[in-house]
């Protein structure tokens, strides 16, 4: 697409000119982004409301504030992140300068998703800017209003030479992916993740894939059911279940299940009242297509609906729904639910529950609710997942010190905070040697002799010490 | 065999550090006990000399094993991170975990170094690994296949030999990480194959590593170091200085100094010198020889197809369009391209793909720093060649066409681990959580913003003091009774004062 090519060329030329490199420039852009958010908070909230009927509180907490927090954190740490990292030297390199330099990669492509359309574009963009790159941002076409808003606001606040927004659907994205970028950051589904990786392979472009999966939630051992239920409900039904790290399904034994259901009912009522449909704090499904998908899953499920179950395709509404007696082979267990439907699968023992989890793809998040530390640590040690959180849901994402990313089918790479900066940087190893000590260097030159080798071995103490061996 | 490795991995026996250390120490013994077999094979494959081998292959492995064994407990331990006010009583850390089964595809130029070093990282991180040495260095591959299983857990770390077809079959399988060392063309195929399974990859590729010589440097020393970097292993090193950029005024001196160094190292007759290597095979011999065709040979150029021998050769006044400048040389031919200034050198370098290494010879630190700032490459080494490889606290890897990912030392451990974010909370302190639950009120938003988004340095605040304080603040924020939710304070858009 000519338009796309022209944009990419312009960005590449800008990058080559070096304008995105100086710390002052990066800080300036980040501060401008901060102004973008604070100046337009109302508009942003309205767009999110339009796209997802996102309750204002959720939009502030999970979208606007996450961006503001990431910006503040990045702005205050940028200088230290950009500084060269001097590394441990060994005896032979004591007189040399050895350091690692974080350098920008070039032109980055960021492809956003529709469930948190604002922060899933801006958080990677923050890392990209901080690392000194130029970027093309491609918001999801499904969250139309937010996409348009970003396309409108970003050029107004950020350097148009360095950053561009390209909107479009599947075709445009495919075309975009034919071009060469220096890093591609994609948030979305596994199927598309594969295509992105394939397209990247053509140009040897490194990628970060933030995918999904079914995040299991195990509840075993002694347990404060009321507290657990509240946190589970909060994490599950936030954004109407459309979070990549929402607890997808629950595993617990029968007794726990019996105690859990009324606790869930209570928590749901406390949060959304008796009629969640009329509650402003309850979100909607993003599109008719996704709503139909969820309705179909419910219809095909052989589980028993114990809470909720009402749906309205017109309104894209699905009531907070809980099912029990769900089998392993149920429709709800086929794919990531991504909606306000919570299946509970009864598994008697923790060991069996862990086997259940391990028989499946590694999820983006894994949750355990238990008052027993042993239970928590057993699950932690015997499973794998992008991230792990015990006795709560989602909040591990809000800590910028923790890398946010998947493993296996749930993704590769990570970001947030310093991790974003590192993701969009190249860690260049630099070694500056001196001109002296040529006499020592002689040890390594041919003609190779036993005695020279002996001296070198001694000097480097390769086998005795724990230092990295320097042969020179 | 992949299935067996996966089953072995799932038994969990790689988890304890003692197991990993045992395997590494066993690998160490292998390198010592089988020194002769290793040397013989390397000599057959690449005409490597008896003393040249430890220098370039095994010494660095021994050092890496030593370092890893020493540091493993530290690297594998949970890494705590900073918290915010709401998680102050929780454990927040990053836990390194194994990925599963790693595929290590080695190369032929330093078959031990580039095949075993990633394996060390894989073992340290607790993975199982399938090792696929390059079939081009076939004698070494055979030794690996025959002898490694005698020292390592052979179910956990099987060695697979074979050529292109076998590698293609391997690549169809699902691994948890693929570590490939080789050229960009195959690198793309590896990444493409990996994409089907969403497998992350580390690609250690190559490129043309430029070597800039500043006119004011000590040319004798510089050229000696460059000659060593270039002609070791007959130029078949991914980080060998590929070509030289210098001012035309010093070109002749550069040629002379390199000639002198070559004579010092390899005598007047490198062909008969045991310390001088050979091209790996006929195909590469023909490829490299052809590169001399359209350029002026300053010295060298002698070759013997029957021995895959090419003399240390320097080409002068080379044009950018010359054959020798079209691809990575990977042979003992050093072209010199003249540039009139540092600016021209930088432009020349930036017009090309990002190389694995950039070499700068200059006494002027400012110039060096300028070149670093205005170019990009996997790594940079000023005033010497190759040695950056051996500093294990420096990441070794490429960028752009020269690769992705890095390893050596802790970088290798991290590269082949999953760094899992962990937040371990308790079910108490529920009071504080109320801030974020619906029904949503303007007040709650304000407090939530305060608690969730303030970073805390735990060292300065006593945990015990903070907990009740936190509860108190939360209770006050929610007014009076922290144990009931009131729907009367519903969030009202008009009164948004957050």
Give structural notes.
Chain B: It catalyses: decanal + NAD(+) + H2O = decanoate + NADH + 2 H(+); a fatty aldehyde + NAD(+) + H2O = a fatty acid + NADH + 2 H(+); an aldehyde + NAD(+) + H2O = a carboxylate + NADH + 2 H(+); octanal + NAD(+) + H2O = octanoate + NADH + 2 H(+). Chain B: Belongs to the aldehyde dehydrogenase family. Chain B: One of its GO terms (biological process) is fatty acid metabolic process. Chain B: Keywords: Endoplasmic reticulum, Fatty acid metabolism, Lipid metabolism, Membrane, Microsome, NAD, Oxidoreductase, Phosphoprotein, Transmembrane, Transmembrane helix. The complex is a heterodimer of chains A (472) and B (498). Chain A is an alpha/beta fold. Chain A has 16 helices and 18 strands. Chain A has three domains: 222 residues, Aldehyde Dehydrogenase, Chain A, domain 1; 188 residues, Aldehyde Dehydrogenase, Chain A, domain 2 (3-Layer(aba) Sandwich), CATH 3.40.309.10; 28 residues, no CATH class. Helices cover 44% and strands 17% of the residues of chain A. In chain A, the strands form four sheets. A seven-stranded mixed beta sheet of chain A has the order 10-13-14-9-8-15-16, sandwiched between helices. In chain A, β15, α13 and β16 form a beta-alpha-beta unit. The longest helix of chain A has 27 residues. Chain B is 42% helix and 16% strand. Chain B has a seven-stranded mixed beta sheet, with helices on both faces. Chain B has a five-stranded mixed beta sheet with strand order 5-4-6-7-17, with helices on both faces. A three-stranded antiparallel beta sheet of chain B has the order 1-3-18. The relative contact order of chain B is 0.13. The C terminus of chain B is likely disordered.
């Amino acid at each position: 697409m000519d338009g796309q090519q022209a944009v990419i060329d312009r960005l590449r030329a800008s990058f080559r000119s070096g304008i995105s490199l100086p710390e002052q420039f990066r800080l300036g852009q980040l501060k401008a982004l901060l102004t973008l958010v604070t100046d337009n908070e109302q508009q942003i909230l309205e767009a999110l409301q339009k796209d997802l009927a996102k309750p204002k509180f959720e939009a502030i907490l999970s979208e606007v504030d996450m961006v503001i927090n990431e910006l503040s954190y990045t702005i205050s740490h940028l200088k230290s992140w950009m500084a060269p990292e001097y590394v441990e030297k060994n005896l032979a390199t004591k007189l040399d300068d050895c350091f690692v330099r974080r350098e920008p990669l070039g032109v980055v492509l960021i492809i956003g998703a529709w469930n948190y359309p604002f922060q899933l574009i801006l958080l990677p963009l923050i890392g990209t800017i901080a690392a000194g790159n130029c970027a093309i941002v491609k918001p999801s076409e499904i969250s139309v209003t937010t996409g348009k808003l970003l396309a409108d606001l970003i050029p107004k606040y950020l350097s148009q030479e360095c950053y561009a927004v390209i909107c479009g659907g599947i075709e445009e994205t495919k075309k975009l992916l034919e071009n060469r970028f220096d890093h591609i950051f994609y948030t979305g589904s596994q199927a598309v993740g594969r295509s992105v990786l394939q397209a990247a392979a053509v140009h040897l472009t490194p990628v970060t894939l933030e995918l999904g999966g079914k995040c299991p939630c195990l509840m075993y051992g002694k347990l404060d059911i009321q507290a657990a239920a509240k946190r589970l409900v909060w994490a599950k039904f936030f954004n109407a279940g459309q979070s990549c790290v929402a607890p997808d399904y629950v595993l617990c034994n029968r007794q726990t299940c019996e105690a859990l259901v009324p606790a869930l009912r209570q928590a749901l009522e406390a949060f959304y009242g008796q009629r969640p449909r009329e509650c402003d704090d309850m979100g909607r499904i993003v599109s008719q297509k996704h709503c139909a998908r969820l309705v179909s899953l419910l219809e095909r499920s052989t589980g028993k609906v114990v809470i909720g179950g009402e749906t309205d395709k017109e309104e894209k509404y699905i009531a907070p729904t809980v099912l029990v007696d769900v089998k392993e082979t149920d429709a709800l267990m086929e794919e990531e639910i991504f909606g306000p439907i919570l299946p509970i699968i009864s598994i008697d023992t923790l060991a069996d529950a862990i086997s259940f989890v391990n028989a499946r793809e590694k999820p983006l998040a894994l949750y355990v609710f238990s008052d027993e530390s042993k239970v928590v640590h057993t699950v932690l040690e015997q499973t794998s997942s992008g991230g792990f959180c015990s006795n709560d849901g989602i909040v591990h994402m809000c800590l910028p010190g923790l890398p946010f990313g998947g493993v296996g089918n749930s993704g590769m790479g990570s970001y947030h905070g310093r991790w974003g900066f590192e993701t969009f940087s190249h860690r260049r190893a630099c070694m500056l040697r001196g001109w002296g000590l040529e006499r020592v260097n002689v040890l390594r030159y041919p003609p190779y002799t036993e005695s020279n080798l002996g001296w070198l071995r001694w000097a480097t103490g390769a086998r005795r010490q724990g230092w990295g061996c320097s042969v020179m | 065999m992949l299935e067996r490795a996966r089953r072995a991995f799932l038994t969990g026996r790689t988890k304890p550090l003692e197991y990993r250390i045992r395997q590494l120490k066993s690998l160490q013994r292998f390198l010592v006990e089988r020194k002769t077999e290793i040397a013989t094979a390397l000599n057959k494959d690449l005409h490597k000399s008896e003393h040249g081998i430890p220098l370039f292959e095994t010494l660095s492995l021994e050092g890496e094993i030593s370092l890893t064994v020493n540091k493993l407990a530290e690297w594998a331990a949970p890494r705590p991170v900073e918290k915010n006010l709401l998680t102050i009583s929780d454990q927040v850390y990053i836990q390194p975990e194994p990925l599963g089964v790693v595929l290590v595809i080695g190369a032929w130029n330093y078959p031990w170094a580039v095949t075993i070093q990633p394996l060390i990282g894989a073992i340290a991180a607790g993975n199982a690994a399938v090792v696929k040495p390059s079939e081009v260095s076939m004698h070494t591959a055979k030794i690996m296949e025959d002898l490694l299983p005698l020292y390592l857990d052979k179910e956990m770390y099987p060695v697979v030999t074979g050529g292109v077809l076998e590698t293609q079959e391997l690549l169809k399988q699902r691994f948890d990480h693929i570590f490939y060392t080789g050229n960009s063309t195959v690198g793309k195929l590896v990444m493409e194959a990996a994409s089907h399974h969403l497998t992350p990859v580390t690609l250690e590729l190559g490129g043309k590593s430029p070597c800039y010589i500043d006119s004011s440097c000590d040319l004798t020393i510089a050229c000696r170091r460059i000659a060593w970097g270039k002609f070791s292993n007959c130029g078949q090193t991914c980080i060998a200085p590929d070509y030289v950029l210098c001012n035309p005024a010093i070109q002749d001196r550069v040629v002379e100094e390199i000639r002198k160094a070559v004579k010092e190292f390899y005598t007047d007759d490198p062909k008969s010198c045991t310390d001088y290597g050979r091209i790996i095979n006929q195909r590469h011999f023909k490829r490299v020889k052809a590169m001399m065709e359209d350029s002026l040979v300053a010295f060298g150029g002698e070759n013997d197809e029957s021995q895959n021998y090419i003399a240390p050769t320097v080409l002068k006044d080379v044009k950018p369009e010359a054959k020798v400048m079209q691809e990575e040389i990977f042979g003992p031919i050093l072209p010199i391209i003249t540039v009139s200034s540092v600016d021209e050198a930088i432009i020349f370098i930036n017009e090309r793909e990002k190389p694995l290494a950039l070499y700068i010879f200059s006494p002027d630190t400012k110039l060096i720093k300028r070149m670093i700032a205005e170019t990009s490459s996997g790594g940079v080494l000023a005033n010497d060649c190759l040695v950056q490889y051996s500093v294990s606290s420096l990441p070794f890897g490429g960028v752009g066409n020269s690769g992705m990912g890095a390893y050596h030392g802790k970088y290798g451990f991290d590269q082949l681990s999953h760094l899992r974010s962990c937040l371990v909370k308790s079910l108490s302190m529920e009071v504080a959580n109320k801030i974020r639950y619906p029904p949503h009120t303007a007040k709650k938003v304000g407090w939530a913003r305060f608690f969730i988004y303030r970073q805390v340095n735990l060292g300065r605040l006593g945990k015990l003091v903070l907990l009740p304080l936190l509860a108190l603040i939360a209770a006050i924020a929610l007014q009076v009774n922290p144990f009931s939710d009131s729907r009367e304070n519903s969030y009202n858009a008009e009164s948004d004062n957050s």
